[in-house]
Amino acid sequence: MKPARDIEVERNIKQGLIDVLKLFSSEKDQLEYQKNVPYVYIPDEIINQWQDWVDHDRKDRYRLDVYSQEELDAIWEFDSVWDREANRVDSNLTMEEVQRSDSWRRLINAA
Fold it and tell me: What share of the chain is helix, strand, coil (3-state, %, to 5)?
Protein backbone atom coordinates (compact mmCIF):
# COMPACT_ATOMS: atom_id res chain seq x y z
CA MET A 1 0.00 0.00 0.00
CA LYS A 2 1.21 3.49 -0.79
CA PRO A 3 2.04 5.91 2.02
CA ALA A 4 -0.78 8.36 2.82
CA ARG A 5 1.08 11.30 1.30
CA ASP A 6 1.50 9.55 -2.04
CA ILE A 7 -2.17 8.64 -2.10
CA GLU A 8 -3.04 12.28 -1.41
CA VAL A 9 -0.91 13.33 -4.39
CA GLU A 10 -2.71 10.75 -6.53
CA ARG A 11 -6.07 12.09 -5.34
CA ASN A 12 -5.00 15.59 -6.35
CA ILE A 13 -4.04 14.28 -9.79
CA LYS A 14 -7.42 12.57 -10.01
CA GLN A 15 -9.16 15.85 -9.17
CA GLY A 16 -7.10 17.61 -11.84
CA LEU A 17 -8.26 15.04 -14.40
CA ILE A 18 -11.87 15.51 -13.33
CA ASP A 19 -11.56 19.29 -13.60
CA VAL A 20 -10.08 19.10 -17.11
CA LEU A 21 -12.77 16.68 -18.25
CA LYS A 22 -15.45 19.02 -16.88
CA LEU A 23 -13.88 21.89 -18.81
CA PHE A 24 -13.66 19.82 -21.98
CA SER A 25 -17.33 18.89 -21.66
CA SER A 26 -18.72 22.39 -21.02
CA GLU A 27 -18.87 24.83 -23.92
CA LYS A 28 -20.20 27.47 -21.53
CA ASP A 29 -17.20 27.10 -19.20
CA GLN A 30 -14.82 27.20 -22.17
CA LEU A 31 -16.31 30.49 -23.37
CA GLU A 32 -16.19 31.91 -19.84
CA TYR A 33 -12.54 30.87 -19.56
CA GLN A 34 -11.81 32.62 -22.88
CA LYS A 35 -13.59 35.75 -21.65
CA ASN A 36 -11.63 35.79 -18.39
CA VAL A 37 -8.26 35.06 -20.00
CA PRO A 38 -8.44 36.67 -23.46
CA TYR A 39 -4.66 36.62 -24.00
CA VAL A 40 -4.55 32.80 -23.87
CA TYR A 41 -5.76 30.55 -26.68
CA ILE A 42 -8.11 28.41 -24.63
CA PRO A 43 -8.43 25.37 -26.93
CA ASP A 44 -4.66 24.85 -26.72
CA GLU A 45 -4.74 25.56 -22.99
CA ILE A 46 -7.38 22.88 -22.37
CA ILE A 47 -5.61 20.37 -24.59
CA ASN A 48 -2.34 21.02 -22.77
CA GLN A 49 -3.99 20.71 -19.36
CA TRP A 50 -4.95 17.13 -20.20
CA GLN A 51 -1.35 16.45 -21.18
CA ASP A 52 -0.18 18.02 -17.91
CA TRP A 53 -2.25 15.63 -15.79
CA VAL A 54 -1.88 12.37 -17.75
CA ASP A 55 1.31 10.36 -17.69
CA HIS A 56 1.04 8.49 -20.98
CA ASP A 57 4.23 6.56 -20.37
CA ARG A 58 3.26 5.31 -16.91
CA LYS A 59 -0.28 4.08 -17.08
CA ASP A 60 0.52 1.77 -14.17
CA ARG A 61 0.71 4.77 -11.84
CA TYR A 62 -3.10 5.05 -11.89
CA ARG A 63 -4.01 2.59 -9.17
CA LEU A 64 -7.18 0.94 -8.00
CA ASP A 65 -6.68 2.30 -4.48
CA VAL A 66 -7.43 5.78 -5.92
CA TYR A 67 -9.39 5.06 -9.13
CA SER A 68 -12.15 2.59 -9.81
CA GLN A 69 -11.74 0.36 -12.84
CA GLU A 70 -14.56 2.31 -14.53
CA GLU A 71 -12.69 5.57 -13.94
CA LEU A 72 -9.50 4.13 -15.38
CA ASP A 73 -11.39 2.85 -18.41
CA ALA A 74 -12.94 6.31 -18.89
CA ILE A 75 -9.56 8.06 -18.57
CA TRP A 76 -7.95 5.86 -21.22
CA GLU A 77 -11.00 6.02 -23.49
CA PHE A 78 -10.91 9.83 -23.40
CA ASP A 79 -7.13 9.78 -23.79
CA SER A 80 -7.49 7.74 -26.95
CA VAL A 81 -9.85 10.35 -28.42
CA TRP A 82 -7.56 13.14 -27.19
CA ASP A 83 -4.59 11.44 -28.86
CA ARG A 84 -6.43 11.31 -32.21
CA GLU A 85 -8.10 14.72 -32.11
CA ALA A 86 -5.94 17.17 -30.14
CA ASN A 87 -3.52 17.90 -32.98
CA ARG A 88 -6.39 18.37 -35.41
CA VAL A 89 -7.71 21.47 -33.64
CA ASP A 90 -6.99 24.49 -35.82
CA SER A 91 -5.24 27.21 -33.78
CA ASN A 92 -6.38 29.86 -36.27
CA LEU A 93 -10.03 29.55 -35.25
CA THR A 94 -11.95 31.41 -32.58
CA MET A 95 -13.19 29.49 -29.55
CA GLU A 96 -16.69 29.45 -31.02
CA GLU A 97 -15.40 28.08 -34.33
CA VAL A 98 -13.34 25.45 -32.55
CA GLN A 99 -16.42 24.37 -30.61
CA ARG A 100 -18.22 23.70 -33.89
CA SER A 101 -15.34 21.68 -35.36
CA ASP A 102 -15.63 17.91 -35.71
CA SER A 103 -12.50 17.27 -33.66
CA TRP A 104 -13.64 19.44 -30.77
CA ARG A 105 -17.12 17.87 -30.86
CA ARG A 106 -15.51 14.45 -30.52
CA LEU A 107 -13.48 15.69 -27.53
CA ILE A 108 -16.55 17.22 -25.89
CA ASN A 109 -18.55 14.05 -26.39
CA ALA A 110 -15.75 11.85 -25.10
CA ALA A 111 -15.35 14.01 -21.98
Answer: 75, 0, 25
